[in-house]
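Researcher: Let's continue the batch. This sequence belongs to MoxR-like ATPase, and it's 358 residues. Same format as the previous ones, please.
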Amino acid sequence: MTDILRPHAEQAYADELAALAGADDRERPAGWRLSPWAVVDYLMGTELADGTVITPKYVGSRRLMEIAVATLATDRALLLLGVPGTAKSWVSEHLAAAISGDSTLLVQGTAGTAEEAIRYGWNYARLLAEGPTEQAMVASPIMTGMREGRLARVEELTRIPSDVQDALITVLSEKTLPVPELGTEVQAVQGFNVIATANDRDRGVNELSSALRRRFNTVVLPLPSDAESEVGIVARRVTDLGRTLDLPQTDASEEIARVVTVFRELRGGLTEDGRTSLKVPSGGLSTAEAISVITNGLALAAHFGDGRLGPADVAGGIVGAVIKDPVADAVAWSEYLETVVRDRQGWKDFYWACREVG
Ligand SMILES: Nc1ncnc2c1ncn2[C@@H]1O[C@H](COP(=O)(O)OP(=O)(O)OP(=O)(O)O)[C@@H](O)[C@H]1O
Ligand SMILES: [Mg+2]
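Model: Same format as before. Here are the structure tokens for MoxR-like ATPase:
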């Protein structure tokens, strides 16, 4: 286990999941490992009667998670929608881990995703040798989920070409996948459902057809509502990541607060005090990016500094995150730097560090 760079959620949180299952006396939908209530407790965090601490995975509205989980107990699939970095993939993985004990039935949506990734393909050597047989067929993650009564995940649904997306319609409405070559079909077992994620910004890449959209309940994951919760999310994830990457655990709170402040101000086009309006850079400046700016800073501090995270360690990462478009974003950034950062109390070092990398 220690050598694995990124264990699946069901491995990383196996203890929590087992403790929840042991304590869970509510009704479980057919094929579910936990009751819907316990799944939401797993996502939001709680303390069990025996003192086991369940860490929060999702920081935000409990109601949203209840809606997501309840959807999966119906015959409709779940679509998690939102701007980049709002924990869509993260929530999808944890839902599958908690409900099915398996988050690995995954279709990664790209422009090149073919119908085989959603239906089934063939092992061509066997197909040629034996003709179409059960053994020559290669099941897709969706087909495996149907057979075994588990959740299947589709990442970035709107990147998948429309005609391929349509292969999901029969699956979701009839809960069956015909295999004409064998004259059979695979009928979904209880416990099967689909969680898809899609990015707001990519809308228009490939629209979801209305026929497909009708098969999903959509839950929109918002950006963190206030700076405090965003700081909390970043701090928690940075600690987790630092542990896996063997980075020394140091106090990063000051720089986390700074990165979150910069990101929130630029994202909203307004300073915290509401006094100065700002140009909004083209990049998303998501919570996920804040996490990686801090993690990069920690690596810089550990390997090239004195181990303590300072303004100079995050400056490069911030500038890189903000300036996605070398022309327009550079203007927005330098305006922000000169009108806001320069004169802000306690931000002098950060200002000069940014000037140096910029
Ligand atoms: N509200 C939140 N609660 C907990 N973690 C969060 C939250 N928002 C963001 N994160 C963290 O942000 C990181 C990125 O999330 P994730 O990759 O799931 O984003 P995404 O919405 O799938 O983005 P994309 O559209 O780019 O695929 C994760 O490590 C996750 O822990
Ligand atoms: Mg994602």
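Researcher: Any comment?
Model: The chain has a mean pLDDT of 93.
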